[in-house]
Write a structure and sequence with these properties.
The structure holds two protein chains of two kinds.
Chain A (H helix, E strand, L loop, with lengths): L8 H14 L1 H4 L1 E12 L5 E6 L4 E6 L1 H4 L11 E11 L4 E11 L4 H16 L16 E6 L4 H13 L4 E6 L7 H13 L4 E8 L13 H9 L4 E5 L7 H5 L2 E3 L2 H8 L3 H35 L1 H49 L1 H6 L4 E4 L17 E6 L2 E6 L23
Parallel strand pairs in A: 3-5, 6-7, 6-8, 8-9, 9-10
Antiparallel strand pairs in A: 1-2, 1-4, 2-3, 4-5, 11-12, 12-13
Chain B lengths: L1 H9 L19 H17 L4 H22 L5 E8 L2 E6 L8
Helix pairs in contact in B: 2-3
Classes of the chains: A alpha/beta, B alpha+beta.
Chain lengths: ~425, ~100
């Protein structure tokens, strides 16, 4: 029986290590695989596993090397790692010591997008609370996009349609390629320093992920976040989502939609104003009519009518009294008249003239004019006047005679009846 | 900060800037004006106001409607482009290529 040498673990491990490190091939090798189990040590060293469907190998990338990485390493990333294989004796692991790391193309952009998205979200750039409200009626709208291309044409066309006197200010930039992101960020900053701009539309027309990439860059995201003017992100088509869309105050699916959001519909607003005007006038008319009716009702109500009624009644009473007075006066007057007429008649009857008219005559002494009643008042030879109804006679008395007994003074007179 | 100055020179303050409202103590925005107008119309239509209050509100409403109408026409229809030259920034009229969609 051959004597087996008994190694210590240290010895065995060392032997294995030597085996590996002596291999020229393993001293400088490039490996393609997918990153998993990535751990970032506080020291700055990276520990991860590279795997494919059949195998996996543990990797370490020291800080000095990892600092040179132009992208951020993450699980799921497909990479090509360049380095050497060796053994870490204390744990008995063979490892790939990675000096260089290159991304393996496929899906890298997408991953970078995801990485930036996670990072900025953690910083709070996407926080809805931070988003500004768009102004209702902007005085000026800034636009950051290419001066050529469909986007600016669409924005202008839609703006003018919505709001005929729209005022736009374009900060022309390149929207793809090297340096585009910087230009876009600068455009946003410059517009922020101009007065009177109330909203900014940042965007471009449709394209591939690479074409739209500028709007996924951190510089653009930060510029949008810093903008004191509200920003509408209008990149690509409906299904394209960019970091700009997430940071902006509002996302528009297309540049045209962005213009629609920036401006209100002037036609609709004018109609609304007209409607208000009509309603104002209508309401006032109604109110006036209602007031008039109220007043009318008040006037007609018993409370108000009664004083008037009493006045009318008083008026009526007054009229009555007047009438009665008039009647009374008339009646009295008639009575007086009647009385007067009677008396007058009586007077007239008694009037000497009436006597004369009846045929009697009156005698008077002449010239004294004393009525002769008796034969004793005259003597023969005196002058007397006899008054008749139509004149007088101047006469001389021839004889004065007494009534003889054969002529009775009882009325039977010798004088002829007055005709 | 010369770019700042240059930018300001291109668009002097007050060009198309906020216009103070005629006779308003606190300038109302268009939106605020419309909201107040809506309130006024509702109030008037409720029919619960005295004639005096109705008249006052009506006057305010008419004034607001005119104010809002003026605001709609304030913006000057134009498209400008911010260009950078040797002397600084300036605004040019932006010509759009013919719409050939």
């Amino acid at each position: 029986m051959t004597e087996q040498k008994i190694f210590s673990v240290k010895e065995l491990t060392h032997r294995i290590k030597k085996l590996i490190t002596d291999d020229q091939f393993l001293r400088n090798v490039w490996v393609r695989g997918e990153v998993s189990n990535l751990k970032r040590h506080t020291s700055g060293h990276l520990y991860f596993t590279l795997k494919d469907q059949a195998a996996s190998i543990r990797c370490v990338m020291f800080r000095s090397d990892s600092q040179r990485l132009r992208f951020r390493l993450d699980d799921g990333l497909k990479v090509i790692a360049g380095g050497y294989v060796s053994v870490y004796e204390p744990s008995g692991n063979y490892q790939l010591y990675v000096r260089e790391l290159v991304d393996d193309g496929q899906g890298t952009l997408w991953l970078a997008f995801e990485q930036l998205k996670k990072r900025l979200e953690a910083e709070g750039l996407f926080d809805p609370a931070v988003k500004k409200k768009l102004p209702f009626l902007p005085r000026k709208v800034g636009v950051v996009t290419s001066p050529t291309g469909a986007a600016i044409r669409d924005i202008i066309r839609v703006s003018r349609r919505r709001f005929p006197n729209a005022h736009l200010l374009l900060a022309p930039v390149r929207v793809q390629g090297e340096g585009a992101a910087a230009e876009i960020a600068l455009g946003i900053e410059r517009l922020n320093r101009l007065p009177g701009i109330d909203v900014i539309i940042v965007g471009r027309g449709g394209g591939s992920l690479e074409d739209l990439w500028a709007f996924n860059e951190e510089t653009v995201a930060r510029a949008i976040h810093k903008s004191r003017i509200p920003i509408i992100s209008a990149v690509g088509h409906e299904t394209d989502f960019t970091i700009s869309d997430l940071v902006a105050d509002v996302r528009a699916p297309t540049p045209s939609a962005g213009a629609s959001m920036a401006f209100p519909d002037k036609e609709a607003l004018l109609k609304a104003l007209e409607s208000y005007g009509t309603r104002l006038r209508g309401a006032l008319k109604k109110n006036l009519a209602a007031e008039r009716r109220r007043l009318k009702r008040l006037l007609e109500s018993r409370a108000l009518a009664q004083p008037l009624d009493r006045i009318n009644q008083a008026r009526q009473r007054l009229d009555e009294l007047y009438r009665q007075l008039a009647v009374a006066v008339r009646n009295n007057l008639a009575a007086w008249k009647a009385l007067r007429d009677t008396r007058v008649a009586a007077l007239e009857a008694l009037s000497p003239l009436a006597i004369l008219a009846r045929g009697y005559s009156l005698s008077q002494t002449f010239p004294e004019g004393r009525l002769i009643r008796s034969r004793t008042q005259v003597a023969p030879g005196d002058l007397i006047e006899v008054l008749l109804t139509d004149g007088r006679l101047r006469c001389g008395v021839k004889e004065v005679l007494e009534w003889s007994p054969d002529v009775a003074p009882d009325g039977r007179s010798p004088f002829p009846e007055a005709g | 900060m010369s770019e700042e100055k240059a930018l300001k020179a291109a668009v002097p303050d007050g060009a198309g800037g906020a216009q103070t409202d005629v006779g308003a103590a606190k300038p109302l925005s268009f939106e605020e004006g419309m909201e107040r107008l809506e309130e006024i119309v509702r109030s008037l239509e409720s029919g619960e106001l005295t004639l005096d209050a109705s008249l006052k509100l009506f006057q305010e409403g008419v004034a607001l409607a005119h104010l809002c109408s003026r605001k709609l026409d304030e913006a000057q229809a134009r498209v400008e482009k911010l260009t950078e030259g040797a002397e600084g920034f300036r605004l040019e009229t932006f010509e759009v290529e013919d719409d050939s969609t």
